[in-house]
Amino acid sequence: MPWNSKTLIFSFLSLILTLLISYNILSYFNFFRTNTNKTDYSILLTKNNFKRSYTPKIKFSDRPISEINGVSLSILDGTSIPDVPMILKSQRYYIPLNVVSKKLNYTVDNSRGSLFISNKSNKIFLTEDSYEKNSKKGSLRGNLINYNNTFYISISDIEELFDLIAVFNFENKKINLIQDNVEAPKKSSILYNYKTSLMRFEDFGCGYSNIVDKNQTKIKIMTNLLYSNGMKFHVSWMPRFVVPSANFDNDLLTKDNIINAGFVNVLDYMLNKGGEIGLHGYTHQSGNIASGTGEDMSKDVNSTEAETRAVIEKGIDTASALNIPISYYESPHYRATTEQKKIIGEYFQFLYEHYDYSKKDNIYKTEDRHLFVPTPLGRISDTAIDTQRIIDNFNEDNPNILKSFYYHPSTEIDYINFETNDNKLNINYNPDSPLQRIVKTLKNDGYTPVHIDELLDK
């Protein structure tokens, strides 16, 4: 019996519907088979509804201001600016805005009720805690300070606003601001259907190699390598560095000196160039053990609820006092107990460690609120073997393993040399360094390094 037109139309629609359902089913199973690094993180990500209940006891706005003598400053020409007033707040040096503006041929206009500085190429609007430069908006690291009816701006903010880099000389107590020739990366949005990765600088504190001025500059050079390639990164920060055997206790809230000012300037520089900072304990040590070697939180150390909270809150208070934004917590050596992790979770949504050893290869979400983000690719201990192992893991592209690793930047400094001849930062950076090799691999393999707090279900 011949089909009528209605029967033909119905059969055709049925066929289309069947094909669509089949396609979606296949796509669904393909998605879950390859979701970790190639497709979509949405099943793992958490909503941005976390609110920390703790209010820091120490605030940046309440920190004292003191006048500084004996520290000289040069801008572009290497010649110290005579009689430049300088103040200190929260381990940042500040100079009058009109001094740096005049030196760089900017005009300052305060007639509109807000600060506006400009030259032929740039227009910069300033508020107390933010800036807008040629439509680019950002936060000031040190804020503008009105001291004795004069606006002061921090060295860190001078670097960011005027495309300069500060090179500290601790022995001569001098800061040389020279041209920062790092190229800004192309803007790109985060695509969760693309291959993502995470990288972290580990055990970063103001002790050992980081109290050497040249090494602080080398950290900035590493930062520029990542920034120029559009690669975001993390810094696990130990706020207080203690080495009992050397009678060394560097509390950034009480030890005001040019070394600590240089270190906070490095933190600011990292933040301005794609870095994100988290707490890595408070001292990362206990008893007679040095920072970075021991831990200040485990089943045997600061194990009570009160002791655990004290460690966490001291770190948060220090970050607040220094105006350092923090986005995650990593317990030293991942030694926090299950109960301590629950307490950490009251202060932080993101824990940069595995939930437990059964979930050490990928992100784990709990109760739609907290993310545990592990580092399955491990760390670089042996620069040859471990660097190649991490590169091989990226190249293998195993979808079941999160492409996340960590690296002690003190290892990388041996691959960097620089000079400041002719008021330029002349850099010799060995292309065979671990970080250079990994950056090259990430680019070649098409990975996008992201921040831990970008793992949000938006």
TrEMBL record:
Cite the SUPFAM superfamilies for this sequence.
Glycoside hydrolase/deacetylase
Name the UniProt record assigns to this protein: Copper amine oxidase-like N-terminal domain-containing protein
* UniProt feature coiled coil, ranges: none
By its UniProt entry, which InterPro entries does this protein fall under? Answer: DUF2334, Glyco_hydro/deAcase_b/a-brl
Q: What organism is this sequence from?
A: Clostridium fungisolvens
Q: Looking at the record's lineage, which domain of life comes first?
A: Bacteria
Q: Which GO BP terms, alphabetically?
A: carbohydrate metabolic process
Q: Which Pfam families match?
A: DUF2334
Q: Where is the signal peptide?
A: none
